[in-house]
Amino acid sequence: RSSGSLRGRPAAMEAREPLRDVRGALRAVLARLREGEPSEGREPFELPRFWDALGQTFQVTSQEATKLSLAFSRPPLPSAENCRKLSEDVQNAILAVATVYYWLPKGQGTTLRKMVRDATTEVVEGMIQLTDTILNAPVESLSQEQLISTGGVWEACEQVSNLPRGEYNQAAVVSALAASLGVVKDAVEEMEHALVEGQDPYGDIMEDEELGFRGNRDTYWSEADRQLLSSCMGLMKASKACLKKVLAAVKAHGKADSPEHIAQLDDLADIANEISPSVDELALSMYPPVNPLAVRLNEASLMNFLPFCRTSHVCPPSEEGWVQFLTGAVDHNMNKVKNFTQGQL
């Protein structure tokens, strides 16, 4: 019996050979998605048709992942012929997903395109992971990894329903701004919590004596640190207020009816994407020992955002009041930070 099972193993490996080929093809699709740009497209572009097609291709991919996983979940394993058919169906499903992504012209806006491309690459990565898992698994059994990989493809395919589908690029920019605002809100709350008077910011992680003595100056804020920190908090709160106001302005006034308006919306999303990591870094540089250079480097992104908002179509005269107010608040706190850090740089 043992020699029979040994003879069966190369046959099983051979049956899975088409999967190796399909894995190579999927990797090529992924590489092209990561670096390639969609074409401008010759036909008139229709957004509802695009969303329908994208949803359908994601659904088909999810079904193909299920079929492939079931075929390799228990003996008898599929014949070489069946494996070839399964592999072809998987490859065709993924090529259809990529093709529909390439329908989306540049003129629809880079923010929307980036979100659709991220969702598409996630589906392709999930399918590569699943084929990898099947190729590396023991022939006889359904592994935990295979279950996880199959679920990963389903999850990636379901993301299509979360993509912002409002008016062209506007909905995508609203989604990007909301994500940045969420990051900044979390950073502000965390810092406010740490700054509670008398609280040791490392109280929860410095219990172990091996990590450092409780008297170590580097684990506490000095009085001078606290003065600097109140200006840093002012900047973080201004970032939060600014993102909140711009998000509301894009919802109220954002238009995607011309290349210029679409480009302005994209620029707002790009600058907002720089603000959230800067605020995160600013928060990190505020922990003792405070790093004045890092504080100065990470406060600058707001300076680009507010002037840009003022010249964008999302800020008609009715919005100018808050732009002026926040510009003043940022200048005031920036000057205080400069004065506090001047001698320390």
UniProtKB/TrEMBL annotation:
It is found in: Cytoplasm; Nucleus. InterPro entries: GCIP-like, GCIP-like_N, GCIP_C. Pfam families: GCIP_C, GCIP_N. Residues 54-195 form the Cyclin-D1-binding protein 1-like N-terminal domain. Residues 207-302 form the Cyclin-D1-binding protein 1-like C-terminal domain. It comes from the Eukaryota. One of its GO terms (cellular component) is cytoplasm. Keywords: Cell cycle, Cytoplasm, Nucleus. Belongs to the CCNDBP1 family. This is CCDB1 protein. The gene is Ccndbp1.
